[in-house]
Predict the structure of Adenosine deaminase.
Amino acid sequence: MYRGFAASVLIVLCTTGSQAMTISRTKVYEDIRAAIVDAEAGFGLGGKVFLNADELRADRTLRAMKKNELQSSDRDQPVAGMHFFEAKSLIETSAVFNALKLMPKGAILHLHNSAAVSSRWVIRNLTYRQEAKLCNVEDRYYFTVRTLNNCPENQTRPIRDMRKERQKDVVVFDEWLESLINMKLKPSRAGHATIDQLWMDFESCFDAIRGFLQYKPFFEAYHRQLLQEFHNDNVYHIELRTSLSKLFDGDGKEYGPVEVAYILHRIVEDFRHQSPTFHGVKLILSKHKNITDKELEGALKLYESLSTSFPGFVVGFDLVGQEDMNRSLKSFAPLLLQPPIPSGPPKYFFHAGEIVGYASEADENVIDAVLLDTKRIGHGYALIKHPVLWHAVRRKQIVLEVCPISNQVLGLVRDLRNHPAGFYVSQNIPITITSDDPGFWDASGVTYDYYYAFMAIAPRAGIGFLKQLVWDSIRYSSLSDAERQNITKIMEKQWALFVREMARENRARN
Ligand SMILES: *[C@@H]1O[C@H](CO)[C@@H](O)[C@H](O)[C@H]1NC(C)=O
Ligand SMILES: *[C@@H]1O[C@H](CO)[C@@H](O)[C@H](O)[C@H]1NC(C)=O
Ligand SMILES: *[C@@H]1O[C@H](CO)[C@@H](O)[C@H](O)[C@H]1NC(C)=O
Ligand SMILES: *[C@@H]1O[C@H](CO)[C@@H](O)[C@H](O)[C@H]1NC(C)=O
Ligand SMILES: CC(=O)N[C@H]1CO[C@H](CO)[C@@H](O)[C@@H]1O
Ligand SMILES: [Zn+2]
């Protein structure tokens, strides 16, 4: 197709000088135009992926569905251009969405455990347990099981009692409870909130749920539900960012980070036993950027001991929190480059470039992340503004963990058709689609994010793009070679089933 393009360019060069040529200018214009369209179709992520006969048929099905949905003009705006909060119920009726739901999605590489489970389940399940309490301090509410440091006994009440008093409007009460951990139900949603206001609400969700997840029985039920929701969404491997904060149980016994990692490991093994197609989980130890050097030192030492106790399970380290409001990666660089641990620096998976502006030092975090040898970049939304760096990112094959709905809910971009990942896709900068904190914005799993990736970020792409994303999610994971072989076997089988199903629909439509 490049030869075709070159030939057309040649024709135009030959014809411009010679009015006498018989080829009409319109014909030349059209030929070159067609050559450009053709060349662009094969350009970018997934453009040159090999497709077998079934995949080609499935591609026709998906493209027909896609065209139909992007063109339907009975609304002002295609669903792909709408904010997730308005679009969710429309997305759920979409044929493309239902196809993507069915699609095996390989690995998801960017997910925070305490925001991963749907808020609906937390309300319907955990808050209905008899241990569940709510604590109220200075107009803020926190879920808890035992009295918290910041929350005296006389300000903590069993949720069950509160619900009894609201017997006539339990639905309203439950929705109010859910608003503590769901951005869609926050007041900031109504107005034109700034990014700082959105982050304040977002952090308040983590503060609200923390007390529940410190209680071992809740922590366990929550993580079983996490695996269930992602596996229901056809995800086979998860790399989970977690702080491994300590737990306590009903007898007041406490569990430190190593024990917590062990508890998680056991939950995952039980789940694999019960769902043999699910491959597993790896952990990335993540600490809030709101820490001192001393605390970072402690965290790096903790990482070292965890990775020694759980090789192949605890696989990396990250720092989280609103970037432009907190310490920059550069401010931590001396410690991160030469951590006080004998095994040298951990594998880093830094959040970086989850910003719109250029105001503080932290806005250059993507540069520091690459210099600190990050294996992947969380978001990399701002990488587009770094013309030297993105070449390096592509050359070093550092994958960007793209979380479309997260970027929208946290105010970086309103219309996802303008998300910079469209540029990354066109330039073959590797990306993976993932969901960050779906439980805090009324989503679950990762299919909603795939919907936006397919419909808004790469509107011209077909199944080749999806195939590339799905297999890249395995490629850029932290799986060992032996694990890769196993998950590849599972995935090949599931992918073939999906493709056959889509190909069959193609026949049914014709
Ligand atoms: C909560 O979820 C657990 C599974 O984690 C289930 O066994 C239990 O029945 C659920 N309880 C309620 C009240 O929904
Ligand atoms: C709760 O108890 C503290 C003392 O422990 C007291 O200062 C505070 O006023 C009490 N608050 C309420 C709401 O009763
Ligand atoms: C960060 O630290 C400041 C000062 O110690 C504190 O006021 C703030 O609540 C912390 N924020 C988060 C999100 O932890
Ligand atoms: C791969 O799968 C086989 C069979 O299920 C299992 O015995 C083996 O332990 C797996 N290997 C890894 C590294 O997960
Ligand atoms: C030390 C510091 O500046 N911490 C800030 C980190 O970001 C949060 C908002 O996400 C602020 O509340 C903290 O003050
Ligand atoms: Zn994140």
